[in-house]
Amino acid sequence: ILNVEQSPQSLHVQEGDSTNFTCSFPSSNFYALHWYRWETAKSPEALFVMTLNGDEKKKGRISATLNTKEGYSYLYIKGSQPEDSATYLCALNNAGNNRKLIWGLGTSLAVNP
Amino acid sequence: GAGVSQSPSNKVTEKGKDVELRCDPISGHTALYWYRQSLGQGLEFLIYFQGNSAPDKSGLPSDRFSAERTGGSVSTLTIQRTQQEDSAVYLCASSLSVGRAHEQYFGPGTRLTVT
């Protein structure tokens, strides 16, 4: 059974702090790793899709790295702002024949002003 | 352009009734997914449609759940004889093609409450 783990489950930081959290996944049969942001009362929104080992992607103050050999990805937020408060989800595509994403339970981030 | 839309946004129904949830994907997106999120749980995959291929129904929790996608566009998720444990937010997403690295675009969801 494929399992995607995210840690920590929740996080509270002060405005201006930088933070990071982890997504762990089985490294065998890896195809792609997705990061999504889900704000309260809104729909999940894609942040990054990563496929290559060692890949690093950046969008504004948010960046992500990928290690497919050891099965983890880090999401970094530099200088957190209250509007960054959301649940950050990662999801795995494996190299099987289906197109389902295997979702983690998310890291809930609260940024205090 | 228009994003993924879902209707209704909220639905309250009595236990035992049937409900239909609708999803309009982004025009041109060939892949369509249904998920649900129950209180305190993560996203749970329900069913996936890709073009004219047979849908992947492996996530449907029981035979009370069914879905169809007509004309490769609009999809309807039907829950028969609803139970209280069916209460959840039902999300629909679409993506551009079969490529696994294509991001999914989510609709606003339908919050289903079974009383």
In short:
In chain A, the strands form two sheets. In chain A, strands 2, 4, 5, 9, 10 and 11 form a six-stranded mixed sheet that branches. In chain A, strands 1-3-8-7-6 form a five-stranded antiparallel sheet, with no helix packed on it. By secondary structure, chain A is mostly beta strands.
What key attributes describe this structure?
heterodimer; A: 113 residues; mainly beta; five-stranded antiparallel β-sheet; 55% strand; B: 115 residues; six-stranded mixed β-sheet; 10 strands; 0% helix; 45% strand; globular
Description:
- The complex is a heterodimer of chains A (113) and B (115).
- Chain A is an all-beta fold and 113 residues long.
- Chain A is 0% helix and 55% strand.
- Chain A has strands at residues 5-7, 10-14, 19-24, 30-38, 45-50, 56-59, 62-67, 72-77, 86-94, 102-103, 107-112.
- Chain A is globular and about 45 Å long.
- Chain B has 115 residues and is an all-beta fold.
- Chain B has no helices and ten strands.
- Chain B has strands at residues 5-7, 10-13, 19-24, 31-37, 44-50, 65-69, 75-79, 88-95, 105-106, 110-114.
- In chain B, strand 6 (65-69) and strand 7 form a beta hairpin.
- The interface between A and B is medium-sized, with 21 and 26 residues.
Helical segment count of chain B: 0
Q: Averaging pLDDT over every residue of chain B, what do you get?
A: 91
Specify the oligomeric state.
heterodimer
Pick out the low-confidence regions of chain A. none
How many beta-strand elements of chain B?
10
Largest interface in this structure: A-B, 21 and 26 residues
Helix content of chain A: under 10%
Structural class of chain B: mainly beta
Distance between the ends of chain A: 41 Å
Shape of chain A: globular
Catalogue the unreliable spans of chain B: none
Number of extended strands of chain A: 11
The biggest sheet of chain B, with number of strands, parallel, antiparallel or mixed sense and barrel status, is: 6 strands, mixed
